[in-house]
Fold this protein.
Amino acid sequence: MKILLPVDGSQLSLEAVRFAIRLVREGLQASFVLANVQEPATLYEVMVAHDADVLQRVSGAAGEHLLSGAEALLNEAGFEHEREVASGDPGHTLVDIVERFECELVVMGARGMGALSGALVGSVSQALVRASPVPVLVVKPHEAPEVEEEDIEGR
């Protein structure tokens, strides 16, 4: 099984990578594809840069940087992986990556660094759940257990 791991550099996306590593350590036979999708340049960026190649290089470098934490986790665990940095609408582009790399599962965080835009437009995880041709496992953030008042008083 090939698992797509979309990564945006957030702690939650790294938690999803750790979860996928745990699945393989517990017996799932799988390989990994790390992916980062950079949103297209804004009109302002295009006007200021004047050079599409510069924008593409900057976007690619940003994507490579955001993959580095997840890549370190996979390398430390001893798992080989493929990688992809792409540009475009994250939901649609991730579906394209799923199809191109023939992934059979997506494991991703519930919300990454784009929380505000996710709240306004709909999160990438929600878009991928709707559009993906393969199952999408959404890893929720670990929340600290709530402490009851009586637990505090009983100490």
Confidence is low (pLDDT under 50) at residues 114-122.
